[in-house]
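Support request, please re-run this one:
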Amino acid sequence: MPSGYLPIFFFLALAILFPIVAILLAKLFRPSAPFLTKLEAYECGIKAASDSRGRYTVRFYIIAILFVIFDVETIFLFPWAVRYHSLGWFGVAEVAVFLAILIVGYIWAYKKGALEWV
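Re-run finished. Output below.
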């Protein structure tokens, strides 16, 4: 086995063992006095009104998915911004097409009412 991999395996073992050891030490040394009030969910001092496992409308999930999809654009724009000078006008045209498709997607989602919160 090449000796170049030895530091990688060392840090991998350290990364695995450190959280395990920290959790076990915390479990051994921390005080434990659970009672009903301490085990309740904390909601700003207000008693919980209902179970948190209730049903949510699908609209919340749709808005979350749309946010993730449209927010990924920054991930695709970063490499372009780094290589902007070497790409020249071809790179500008590529980003213009990408942003045009993105804007069409925004308009489509808006017209479908997917971005309406109520």
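The radius of gyration is 25 Å. The chain has five helices and no strands.
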